[in-house]
Design brief:
It comes from Kaistella yananensis. The chain is α/β, with parallel strands linked by helices and 232 residues long. The chain contains 9 helices and 11 strands.
Length: 232
């Protein structure tokens, strides 16, 4: 996949590097030439641009980009300006960093659906989320095993856990299922609310929108995600 990461501070730089190591093409953008020079050997491309200047930002290859991440964290105004410009230039998937609750509220009002909180979430975790299709959340228990939340692949809609054979076929344990409920936010937009189902009934068919909570070896999890998404 192809990404543009705007803002090469600690979080943005770490995210750009980890996405690159996972085999993605990454364009890093920052207004500091020093930061750009320091990273140009570590990621696919590094460009010195003012992210608040719509004219210069218009030259980036948005048409061929899957996701744009606004990782600016030291300047709320610059983050909001850059987000607004990207919203206009790249109407596909946009992820922006929230510095505080008020900033997050503004981003929600701008219809930004995916918001990063670097103080709570690591760059490595976000690199995995972005690189593995369907991955919602991951909790690494060791270098080998993790608990992950994965959106139910389309091929499994209407099937029960016993029919999918998580343990026998994929060597994974289905811990539980999370149902997604919807409620209105103060801006009239739909926000997602989780409802954990507890102990799974292996005979109950899974529904579109369900999130699977799986435990297993990291390699088996990657194989499950790759095989499930490739058949959709």
């Amino acid at each position: 996949m192809k990404y543009i990461v705007i803002g090469l501070g600690n979080f943005g730089l770490a995210l750009a590097e980890k996405l690159t190591k996972l085999g993605n093409e990454v364009i890093g953008v920052d207004s500091s030439m020093t930061k750009v020079e320091s990273v140009k050997e570590k990621i696919s491309h590094a460009i010195c641009l003012d992210a608040t200047d719509e004219y210069t930002m218009g030259g980036l290859p948005y048409k061929d980009t899957d996701v744009v991440v606004i990782a600016i964290g030291e300047n709320t105004g610059a983050n909001i300006m850059a987000t607004a410009i990207i919203k206009k230039l790249h109407p596909n998937r946009i992820i922006s960093r929230a510095i505080d609750p008020l900033h997050e509220t503004i981003l929600e009002a701008m219809d930004i659906h995916t918001i990063i909180h670097p103080e709570e979430e690591t760059a490595e975790k976000w690199a995995k989320k972005l690189s593995l299709k369907g991955l919602v959340e991951s909790f690494e228990l060791s270098g080998k095993y993790s608990i992950v939340e994965i959106r139910l692949p389309q091929k499994f809609v209407g099937k029960s856990p016993v029919e999918i054979e998580f343990r026998a076929k994929y060597n994974l344990v289905l811990v539980t299922v999370i149902k997604i409920l919807a409620e209105k936010s103060i801006f009239g937009k739909v926000k997602r609310v989780n409802e954990v189902q507890g102990v799974v009934n292996n005979e109950t068919p899974l529904e579109k929108g369900d999130i699977l909570v799986l435990y297993g070896d990291n390699d088996d999890i990657k194989t499950f995600i790759r095989e499930s998404s490739s058949e959709e």
